[in-house]
Amino acid sequence: MRYPPAETAEKHQRILDEASKLFRERGFSGVSVSELMEATGLTHGPFYNHFASKQALMEACIQHIAAKAIAELEAVPSSERGKAEFFAAYLSTEHRDAPGAGCLSASLGPECSREAGLRQAFTEYVRNIISTSARHLPWKGKRSARSQAIHSMAAMVGAIVLARGVSDDELSEEILNEVRRSLE
Fold first, then answer.
1. Count of domains for the chain
2. Could you tell me the pLDDT band of residue 5, with boundaries at 50, 70 and 90?
3. Burial class for 12, CB neighbours closer than 10 Å (0-12, 13-18, 19+)
4. Domain residues for 34?
5. Do 176 and 155 form a contact (C-beta atoms < 8 A)?
6. Is-contact 61 16, C-beta < 8 A?
7. Mean pLDDT of the chain
8. Rounded distance, CA 70 to CA 62, Å?
9. What is the chain's Cα-based Rg?
10. Rounded distance, CA 114 to CA 75, Å?
11. Are 76 and 137 in contact (CB under 8 A)?
12. DSSP strands (E only) in 6-148
């Protein structure tokens, strides 16, 4: 049975959205195709009408998350206040506690480094975030905007990874606060 193109596109989008969330929450190996399809309300069979393999879905999810991240960054007001609010939101307990809706780098970066087939898509994401940040946000100081964008990204991603990883809430919040202050 063939479905109308709009319905097929909606299902494809639903799979991407749900997979992007679940992969960020549990990692690539922590989600099976069956679980994913169940979470979307679809059966296992149609998965292969949308993606050739789980690996293809993983790459598509990186591109999907990346496109949303670039759009969100470009929506940040290009001002000191906009940059400060963006950093504060990123380095918040809300972001720390919601990996399924959060940053691709903090959730899946280490996994992408071990998945040769995903490294190119992840590399493009990182390049685009750095160049968009360098171009869009206001940067001051002696170092180039690109250098400051790289430093900020590395500090923020590292802070979220550490804050999520420790079992001490007070230490977790201290990590987020200290990195936020260092970027002011």
1. 1
2. low
3. middle
4. 5-182
5. no
6. yes
7. 94
8. 12
9. 18
10. 32
11. yes
12. none
- In tens, the pLDDT along 82-105 reads 999 999 999 999 999 999 999 999
Picking from 115, 107, 101, 106, the residue whose alpha carbon sits closest to that of residue 53 is 115
3-class secondary structure, 16: helix
DSSP assigned state of 2: P
Domain of 170, CATH number, reads 1.10.357.10
pTM across the whole model? 0.90
| Number of residues in the chain | 184
What digits encode the pLDDT tens for the residues 14-68?
999 999 999 999 999 999 999 999 999 888 778 888 899 999 999 999 999 999 9
CB 138 within 8 A of CB 83: yes
Beta strands in 12-83 (DSSP E): none
Residue at 112: amino acid letter = C
How far is Cα 129 from Cα 125, in angstroms, rounded to an integer?
A: 6
Q: Looking at residue 90, what is its pLDDT?
A: 98
pLDDT above 60: residue 1: no
Q: Quick one: which of 34, 39, 31 has its CA closest to 11?
A: 39
